[in-house]
UniProtKB/TrEMBL annotation:
Entries under InterPro entries matching the protein: Epimerase_deHydtase, NAD(P)-bd_dom_sf, Sc_DH/Rdtase_CS
Cross-referenced Pfam families: Epimerase
Family membership noted in the UniProt record: Belongs to the NAD(P)-dependent epimerase/dehydratase family.
Domain of life (superkingdom): Bacteria
Domain (NAD-dependent epimerase/dehydratase) ranges: 3-240
Record protein name field: UDP-glucose 4-epimerase
Organism per entry: Nonomuraea longicatena
């Protein structure tokens, strides 16, 4: 299969690329390197079945490129990913996440693609009344980022209705693993890992009881690759473990893996922080045959090992 991965130089996108190449597919990446890096693609460049183009997804040249490449499937992960930046600059967020998605869909249509696999976020659920969030939970966007992800989802539906462009939406919980940047606010695992491996202080916001659903990046890459092959039918699936992990426990596991002191500092909770989150993975199992396979301790040890190898 020929697959285009937008945002393929990023944290999750580069794992999707590696997994597609390992399965023998031909892979094309468009990325403007605004937060991603070609360092994440060093193995891909050696594969002989990999093509990279540095380009903003909103660039008018995207259509011609996709017509030339003719990908059967487009995995669309390029995005403005920071909730806080979306609040500070909602126009930029909408331009990248909504306008950018419209550009990717137009190019996919021009290039004759069969399907789009889209990366959405659990942010679309706002403060969910039921945890783990069921597959059919109502959405409640409480940030421009959540609104732009939902807007992009609506564009996917409209292109399917108008042009028959198939899609699957994958709604991602908190993804962690090797290559995640500690610069992004989404990456609490990366932030703790960097600090604990380097022997630097760490801070928990609130009393440490806030929970998140941490899912390992290789498992997410499996879901993207699985969704490339299947018929999407315009369905959306939550991808997480269904398990809630407190900030305090997360810190302890990473400190243990890093052989560091498990003594975080505490700071007041941040405005707008969600107290708890986890999503029900059962519908993804029923619809995609996907299950998260990596136990949290195992995934966090692999992340610490990767961070150590970068320091050598
Ligand atoms: N990391 C998570 O926990 C998480 C959770 C939910 C959803 N997501 C979604 O998954 C996707 C990937 O996120 P990530 O964590 O790998 O982030 P990332 O920042 O590492 O990856 C995003 C990639 O998109 C590229 N990009 C950004 N704007 C672009 C543009 N205008 N044109 C071309 N390329 C552009 C960046 O350079 C980067 O390589 C995003 O859509 C994000 O919203 C991530």
């Amino acid at each position: 299969m020929r697959v285009l991965v937008t945002g393929g130089a990023g944290f999750i996108g580069s794992h999707v690329v590696d997994r597609l190449l390992a399965d023998g597919h031909e892979v094309f990446v468009v990325d403007d390197l605004s937060s991603g890096s070609t360092d994440n693609l060093s193995a891909a460049f050696d594969s002989g079945r990999f093509h990279f183009h540095e380009l903003d997804i909103r660039d008018p040249g995207l259509g011609a490129l996709v017509v030339e490449w003719k990908p059967e499937v487009v995995c669309h992960l390029a995005a403005q990913i920071s909730v806080r930046r979306s609040v500070a600059d909602p126009i930029h967020d909408a331009r990248v996440n909504v306008e950018g998605t419209a550009c990717v869909l137009g190019a996919a249509r021009e290039g004759g693609s069969r399907k789009v696999v889209f990366a959405s976020s659990v942010a679309v659920y706002g403060h969910p009344p039921v945890i783990p969030v069921p597959g059919d939970a109502p959405t409640d966007p409480r940030s421009p980022y959540a609104a732009s992800k939902l807007g992009a989802e609506a564009y996917l539906s409209s292109y399917r209705a108008l042009y028959g462009l198939d899609f699957t939406t994958l709604v991602l919980a908190n993804v962690y693993g090797p290559r995640q940047s500690a610069a992004g606010e989404a990456g609490v695992v990366a932030i703790f890992t960097d600090a604990l491996v380097d022997g630097k202080p760490t801070v928990l916001y609130g009393d440490g009881t806030q929970t998140r659903d941490y899912v390992f990046v290789a498992d997410i890459a499996d879901a993207f690759v699985g969704a490339c092959g299947s018929e999407g039918g315009g369905r959306r699936f939550n991808l997480g473990t269904g398990l809630q992990t407190t900030d305090r426990r997360l810190h302890s596991i990473i400190a243990d893996a890093a052989g560091a002191n498990d003594k975080p500092g505490f700071a007041p909770p941040r405005l707008g922080d969600l107290p708890a989150m986890a999503v029900d993975p059962v519908p993804a199992y029923e619809g995609l045959g996907w299950l998260p396979r990596t136990e949290l301790g195992e995934g966090l040890r692999a992340t610490v090992e990767w961070r150590r190898s970068c320091r050598r």
